[in-house]
Amino acid sequence: MASPFKVTEFDSGRYITNVTAGKFNGDSTTDLATMDLLSTQIGILPGDGTGKFSIGSYTSTGEFPLRL
What we know:
Layout: E1 16-22, E2 31-36, E3 41-45, E4 57-60
Antiparallel strand pairs: 1-2, 2-3, 3-4
């Protein structure tokens, strides 16, 4: 059975181990933050307030992140 939801995939790393929602970019909408276990980056996918997210930006943590 086909999903009733439209799925959009974003490349946010190879070994995503954590995803959390919050207000990370200073606006009033909910965003997603992702953590890649084998990189030194976290990704922020900005939300548009309607349940959709756009291609994000990546920030270096300086070392391997353990949790968000």
